Amino acid sequence: MSQTKLKLAIGLGATCSGCDMAIVDLAEKLTNVFNAVDIVFWPTASDQKLKEFEQLPDASVDLGFYHGSIANEENKEIAHLLRKKTKTLISFGACACHGGVPGLANLTTTKELFATVYATPSTANPDLKQPQTKTTIGGYSLVLPEKFDTVQCLNECIDVDYYLPGCPPEVPLVEKAIEAILTGKLPAKGETLAPNRILCDECPRKREEKKIPKIYRIQQIIPDQEKCLLDQGVICLGPSTRMGCGARCLEANMPCRGCMGPTSKALDQGAKMIASLGSILGLEGEEAMTEEEVKQLMDQVKDPLGLFYMFTLPASILKRRNMTQK
Q1: How far apart are CA 38 and CA 48, in angstroms?
Q2: Start-to-end C-alpha separation, the chain
Q3: What residues are paired with 140 via a beta bridge?
Q4: Same domain for 244 and 175
Q5: Rounded alpha-carbon distances, angstroms, from residue 311 to 75, 156, 179, 258, 326
Q6: What is the pLDDT of residues 154-182, one digit of tens each?
Q7: Which residues make Cβ contacts (< 8 Å) with residue 213, sequence separation at least 6?
């Protein structure tokens, strides 16, 4: 007698679909997944229609993955539908877990964003037309989902059972998560399915006591591949970022930008990194820095908000720019 397969649904929000590729990258192990689950909804890879998914009984789907942030009305509707139809829902990837790169739109408003995007020198738009939620062309009414001013993480919109971070989640983490699901060994609700330690614990580079007098952007130097990037003056978010990615960026001699998000011990990833950075900036020896020297050093940090909150602005204490700001 064959074992009943689990039913899986994968919903999309504001996403590049790199998270879909993380699933496909399971390669030959994907066959084992298909043998164990029936995919009832996955717009990127299968031809099930949204109406068919809507007609399924509530809570009839065993597992749901949602990747992407909540940036427009359609994203929100798909998130609520997935929550309604699934028993267990996993926030899959950096965008769903923390807002991701789309969350940097919280630095502006939809009006300002459209005014910029549809008026660039490379955009053929002489009339400066912008997307409208409703348009009538040739007697047909076309509808686009409303773009929100504020990008949200998934758990700001619906109840989430588990979190699997990364941009996209690394294949070993996806494998472990699927194995835990299939064997019924998931942890307590609300847990993140990745180690709860900082990336520095996973990084093989040699570390010394850090006291750096100058900050470099990665394109300004060729870093020593054996030495900690922070020791070399390159800002790396390893001290404030959850491990589990295998330090892939560091293997390529590139600094961590924080796509795994913070550990449970950090309330705010950006603030944690700023505090870590503040403890290692200084002059050689015991000489104290003057206020002007501190300012000159901090001026070397380009785009601090984009650097410290590249993947986590919607999940941070800041969340977005003040809407009343001119």
Answers
A1: 12
A2: 67
A3: 137
A4: no
A5: 18, 16, 27, 7, 25
A6: 999 999 999 999 999 999 999 999 999 99
A7: 233, 282, 283, 284, 297
The share of the chain scoring above pLDDT 70, in percent, equals 96
Ordered alpha helix ranges (H), the chain:
18-24, 29-36, 50-54, 73-85, 94-98, 110-117, 171-182, 248-251, 269-278, 291-298, 304-308
Closest CA to 200 of 263, 150, 107: 263
Lookup: tokens for 52: 């068919």
Residue range of the domain that includes 207: 199-315
CA–CA dist 243, 172 (Å, integer): 12
**Is there a contact between 49 and 24 (Cβ–Cβ < 8 Å)?**
no
CA nearest to 182, candidates 22, 10, 32: 32
Report pTM. 0.92
Q: C-alpha distances in angstroms, 309 versus 103, 220, 268?
A: 9, 22, 9
Is there a single domain that holds both residue 259 and residue 160? Answer: no
Note whether 74 and 168 are same-domain residues.
yes
